[in-house]
Amino acid sequence: MATFSVNNIAIKGISCCVPKNTERNIDLDLLTQEEIQKFIDATGVEERRIATKEICTSDLCCEAAEKLIKDLNWQKEEIEILVFVSQTADYILPVSAAILQDRLGLSTNCIAFDVPLGCSGYVYGMSIIASMMNSTGIKKGLLLAGDTSSKLLSKSDKSTVPLFGDGGSATAFELDEKAERLLFDLGTDGSGYKTIIVNDGGSRNRTNSDSLTYHTISPGIERNACQLILDGMDVFSFGISQAPKTVNKLIEKFEIDKDAIHHFVFHQANLMMNKMIVKKLKLPVEKVPYSLKEFGNTSSTTIPLTIVTELKDSLTNATQDLILCGFGVGLSWGTAKVKLDNVVISDLIEI
């Protein structure tokens, strides 16, 4: 069943890490000044954090995890599950989670695996780690979610470069019989898989001599077959249609008092799309935080990054109910209702 609950699992802390390197859209040569301003007005993205060649998603998540473990005063040998959610793993194989288990100095008794999801990945990851901990009795676990999407982009593609930024996160989960249950609604429509895709490099289309050849798609858009394709109109239609549906489905299924929710944290797709989603759901704008302006669309990092950068003050030493909603590549979506009770929100890390 795609709508379900998980008992006895509490979120204890959230940490995020972004690259120091900042790229401002106003400085891009891809667009005219008029085009840049229209883009900023529509998407809300003024600047993004871009990883250097040496920094991978796992590096960002590792820094976030180290900080969170320290802030929580956890003992590393107590962490028995690590889930790494990302579309930009270190290697085709082995899984990055195994490498992170070793880098973090976790016990060899720790379960570690990757989940290759993007925009919906944080909510999916939450449901996976919480369900496994509840069913096995594992007491402490880490969800690491992040992406360095910039590594998948053509520098000559004005449809993607100004939108995507890089980031990584760590979220700590603990077995707690007093915790309020976590509520989830998840779904997938694979008929739209071509909407956001990298065509070559996997087993279906192996990298070949033509894979790195650049093609002009339209004015201002040149890319090769190993770089990200984003069908903006289809993504927009999907987002404004499916996001309200999944939020409403969760609310109706569990009879949630929408007015009692303190914050609605959506995947940071783009400002125009998200405003339409908020309007459809008839939500107070002050309950919907954004991190788009400084960070752009950071894929699976957007929800925790928005919490860390926009909600740290309100969540510190407080108990609040949040609804989290991610949607995108797959096409897939996930919504969760969580209660954050005195959760530790680490300061944003930059490397």
Would you write up a description of this structure?
With 351 residues, this protein is an alpha/beta fold. Helices cover 29% and strands 28% of the residues. The protein contains 9 helices and 18 strands. The chain has helices at 33-43, 57-72, 96-103, 121-136, 232-253, 271-281, 292-295, 302-310, 312-315; strands at residues 3-6, 9-18, 22-24, 47-49, 79-85, 111-115, 140-148, 166-175, 182-188, 196-197, 215-218, 221-223, 229-230, 263-266, 319-328, 332-341, 344-345, 349-350. Strands 2, 5, 6, 7, 8, 17 and 18 form a 7-stranded mixed beta sheet that branches. It has a 5-stranded mixed beta sheet with strand order 1-9-16-15-14, with helices on both faces. A hairpin with a 2-residue loop joins strand 11 and strand 12 (221-223). The chain is globular, with a radius of gyration of 19 Å. The mean pLDDT is 96.
